[in-house]
């Protein structure tokens, strides 16, 4: 009804409802107190007593419901849930919850990402950067509700703390007394506004996601998802016709993609944890677990064939060289050699197939991977090179790279500045992490990502070019910087972007170098 009636019509309807309510109360009291005996004609028979018992029970139940409703509304201004509900779902002009001037949402340096503006006696939410921060900030609008940090931090933004009754009492008093406009509290996020804008700009309209996080404390500096939407210009079409672009979908935290060669980080960690130190033969013709299956080959094989030459293969190589050169043939064999039990244990230790709650209702997925059956060696070989029935999210890959740089410990990602710092899990031993970090540095200095080597900042990482059944390959880069004193981890995904070394890696490099200029990298 709130959506269909304008204020003038609703005022008349409200008056009628009030009259009907008091008439109902009078009738119930009249029946319960026996007042009808005075109005009943004396010569009419009295109703049987059997009627009075269920009537009294129903009347008491109705009165109890009315009392609950009255206490909920009369004392609702002292309840955080009631205030948030009224702001999100009640559009009536006389709704007192709309008088609250919600606090601002700020980035780590105090730049305003969302604020409340007064216009013509009303308040409205303003988002200066439109779609850039929408995947994190979300929106707060009476017609469509609230999402993102607007929903997670609603109680705080309204001016109260669930644990501080005095604050809510003062807020309720201001709403009822109307002596001054109630003001909320500012919510400071861990995001860096400049880096976030740069990430969206570098994606250049292509679908994808960028995540940058502090690997020591989990603070997320960039959480970009493109395409996005303008939270200040919401309309029904966005919710009805958004399937093509999926603008409401947060690709960074919920988007599932094949990781390609970036998943070799996990496979290398598994091998190191199990003490692998040997070498494997990597012939030019590739590797297969069965003659009936297509061979897994290195990208150099296909590059040589396009040029009309012949690839000789890597020959017999060890884990470090295979990682730096991203040899599919080596890692496919390595995955099969380690076996199904080791792979399933690794997936559990690395928190795959999890939904991790970050703040309130704001959560992230890690990935999606089915339990492997023992005889299926071909699927195991495919998974070992980041293909097959394996999907991950960009934020998870940033967290994995950060764990390598943080001596094997993955920190719980954070978006609110005042939230507590806590480790999520130990992904690997510090010894394995140290070896793997050196390999990731080698990828930049002499491997597949050597094109982004820069004298200004020592980078470490892993490229990925993930085959995609719906079109061109996805472009990946995950890594951290600086290599010697890691501070930030990064993950860049460009949907159907092609080679990770060509598209995703330069975006990651430029973001990390800019982060260094902003003081986020020592």
Please supply descriptive tags for the structure shown above.
5-stranded antiparallel beta sheet; 4-stranded mixed beta sheet; disordered N terminus
Number of strands: 19
**Average pLDDT:** 85
Rg for CA atoms: 30 Å
* SS field, number of helical segments: 20
* Alpha-carbon distance between the two ends: 57 Å
Helix content, binned percent: 40-55%
Identify the strand order in the major beta sheet: 8-7-19-18-17
Strand content: 15-25%
Structural class, by secondary structure, is alpha+beta
Q: What profile does the largest beta sheet have?
A: 5 strands, antiparallel
Overall 3D form: elongated
Low-confidence stretches: 1-7
Write a structural description.
- It is built from 20 helices and 19 strands.
- The protein is an alpha+beta fold and 522 residues long.
- A 5-stranded antiparallel sheet has the order 8-7-19-18-17, sandwiched between helices. A 4-stranded mixed sheet has the order 3-2-1-6, with no helix packed on it. It has a two-stranded antiparallel ribbon with strand order 4-5.
- Helix 9 runs antiparallel to helix 20 and helix 12 (264-273) packs across helix 15.
- The two termini are 57 Å apart.
- 41% of the residues are buried.
